[in-house]
Amino acid sequence: LPTIATSTTKWSSGAHDEDAADRSDLSDIDVVELPTGQFHEPKCNYSVHLVNRFGPILNRQVNIGEPLYHRWKCSYGSENANIYCMVIQNCTVTDARATSPNVQIIDNAGCSLFPKLIPNIVYHSDLEAGMSVTAFSLDIDTVSALKLVVSSTIS
Predict the structure, then answer these.
(1) Measured between alpha carbons, how far is 72 from 31 in angstroms, rounded to an integer?
(2) Per-residue pLDDT tens for 9-53?
(3) What's the rounded Cα separation, in Å, for the pair 90 and 39?
(4) Which among 75, 91, 102, 142 is most buried, taking Cβ atoms within 10 Å?
(5) How wide is the angle at C-alpha 75 spanned by C-alphas 71 and 80, nearest 5°?
(6) How would you list the strands of the sheet with 43-50, edge to edge?
(7) Residue 129 belongs to domain with CATH number
(8) Would you say the pTM of this structure is higher than 0.70?
(9) Is residue 91 located within the same domain as residue 30?
(10) Angstrom distance (rounded) from CA 48 to CA 132
């Protein structure tokens, strides 16, 4: 196992052992102090567009079969700073009155659970994702609510 050193503790062969006589001498290793900083949380928006990602934002009821585009976009000031990366996961649908149980359509890994009906999400950049679908209805009444989780990770 590799030897790991920190600024306050020495580890040998993956086990903490301060009294070991055969411990590797790590006094020659420079410990790098990583800079710390505060980063503003990204501002994220979810929108549904007609036809594609450049289409008008949906502001009316749709009919089953109409082409739609679900878009997630985040921003934190500088698009090219490469600090955050978005992951869409755990999406569910339910009826307008929320009387039926939620139906999960995107799992916790971000994969579609119904790939013939709902494609996997396409990531256009670290801060923008979307998917093209046609409006559909499940065994529940009219589907109108979409709950999702957007995770942002520091890269």
Answers:
(1) 40
(2) 444 444 444 555 555 666 677 777 766 777 677 888 999 999 999
(3) 25
(4) 91
(5) 110
(6) 43-50, 67-75, 128-134, 122-125
(7) 2.60.40.4100
(8) no
(9) no
(10) 10
